Amino acid sequence: MAVKNPIIVALDLRTAEEAVRLAQQVSPYVGGFKIGIGLLYGPGPATIGALASLGKPVFADAKLHDIPSQVKAAARSLARHGARWITTHASGSSAMLEAAVEGAASVPSADAGILGVTVLTSLDEADLAKVGFGTTPGKLVSRLARLAAAAGCEGVVCSPLELGVVREVAPTLVPFTPGIRPPGVPTQDQARTATPGEALERGAGYLVVGRAITGAVDPVAAAREIHETLPGVRENS
Ligand code: C5P
After folding, report:
1. Where are the domains of the chain?
2. Going by C-beta distance under 8 Å and a sequence separation of 6 or more, which residues neighbour residue 184?
3. Ligand 1 mean position to 231 CA, how many Å?
């Protein structure tokens, strides 16, 4: 049975033009496009609309983290620009997450959902200790996923290694998983990684794939190869 395409390509490129061009090229092999703070603070949120016009959902990885009123305003604005998903750091706690959900919901035409970023995939236990979190990534993800679910988030962003925890403590949330590396691709600055197949087996709803596609000599071939390795994924959503 054909299933939706779970690949979200992270378009971490220098200009909006480059991002839109690459999005067009890899579009047949991905289910959505993600832009991060590099483009949101550079060319700006209009890039969301340019990508949305290609006909796939756009993930605005804004990683919002501020007082609730500011986060609500930012979520509303990103939803107006056409974002389908908007990220907020779940460590901003309940009131901030609820404000983000309210801000997104205040633009009914957008159908935007809030994703709580749990623990960045570039961090390990030693990094958490340095900033005062005396716990493991798994325990912190568990706590933050519960907060995100209670606040009405649609999903969370977590590493492939914490998918089991999220599925267990917050089964209603859709897990979005960065730190994806096909076999043989360097992990770079990511500390907690898995292959696309492993992440799906562990319960990922969507796979966020950046440099394994954007940094490849032939990004279109890289996207096609990842798409072809996913069992049952024969159609785009
Ligand atoms: O290039 P790579 O595949 O490592 O990119 C991963 C993408 O996922 C980046 O755009 C990064 O901002 C994002 N991300 C992450 N870890 C999180 C949340 C988002 O790496 N916890």
Report:
1. 7-228
2. none
3. 23
pLDDT tens for residues 175-187?
Answer: 999 999 988 888 8
161 SS3 class: helix
Q: DSSP string spanning 61-127?
A: EEEE-S-HHHHHHHHHHHHHTT-SEEEEEGGGHHHHHHHHHHHHHT-GGG--EEEEE-S-TT--HHH
User: Domain spanning 7-228: which superfamily?
Assistant: Aldolase class I (3.20.20.70)
Mean of the per-residue pLDDT values for the chain?
94
Centre of ligand 1 to C-alpha 19, Å, is: 16
Does the CB atom of residue 10 touch ligand 1 within 6 A? Answer: yes
